[in-house]
Amino acid sequence: xxxISELIDLSGQTALITGAAQGIGAASAHRLAxxxxxxxxxxxxxxxxxxxxxxxxxxxxxxxxxxxxVGRVESFPAAMARIHEEAPRIDLLVNNAGIFxxxxxxxxxxxxxxxxxxxxxxxxxxxxxxxxxxxxxxxGGRIVNIASVDALRPTGQLAPYDASKAGIVMLTRSLAVExxxxxxxxxxxxxxxxxxxxxxxxxxxNSAAASAMAGFVHRIPMGRMGSPDEIARVVLFLATPLSEYxxxxxxxxxxxxxxx
Length: 260
Ligand code: NAI
Fold this sequence. Notes:
Elements: H1 4-7, E1 14-17, H2 23-34, E2 38-43, H3 46-58, E3 62-67, H4 76-86, E4 92-95, H5 110-138, E5 141-146, H6 159-179, E6 184-191, H7 197-201, H8 208-218, H9 228-239, E7 250-253
Parallel strand pairs: 1-2, 1-4, 2-3, 4-5, 5-6, 6-7
Helix pairs in contact: 2-9, 5-6
The structure holds 1,4-dihydronicotinamide adenine dinucleotide.
């Protein structure tokens, strides 16, 4: 039986993480690097993404930054060709990039809908396909999709987002079934409220959204928001043989929010 230290050892493997300049993606990049993976930090924010890769290197990990806009499907072949020059094989893909602009459903424009679905669902799908083709040639891989508790219970004023995250949950299952014969596992995480720069920016102080958030935190049995690292640890679990027999699963990490 393998030892625990072997089960979480990602040495010699390459992980590509989208939206990894900050928040959950950045925390995941740090943990995967700590487990020995060579991490490809990707983001649209080149300055913050480069800083993040440098931080990982300073902490003793292996990382590089490469720009990747998950909302621009047409750019994927060129972006992946560039990524492959430096990382010929991707063993792990973390589909983390996502936006969550709040607005009442009755005020939602087609442009807002398209922006959210284009990045959160369409981009995630086509990037996954691009990477999975290469994983199939290499004999396998693991894909971790960051969904949300909003896929299961709406928190309010996020209708397009909720639809995109529910779509991710079903895509996870569809792809898990289709890709299992190639040795590719596909799982998803449903984070609850996580204290990230993006979450903070979406809640201006003293706004209606801030009071809604206070009510949301009140409904979390553990009584607090989660930290990005508390999601990153579950990303690590799904990225390693610790979860070897799991595919198509949705792991809820929400301080008990959905249990209530
Ligand atoms: P964040 O906003 O703090 O960080 C998101 C990162 O994605 C940023 O670095 C941003 O530059 C990057 N990004 C934005 N557009 C991009 C694009 N087109 N292509 C590539 N990168 C892009 O977000 P946070 O909170 O860390 O969320 C990460 C994921 O977790 C998202 O998918 C979000 O929906 C999900 N999530 C977050 C929760 C929370 O409470 N923070 C709860 C449930 C899910």
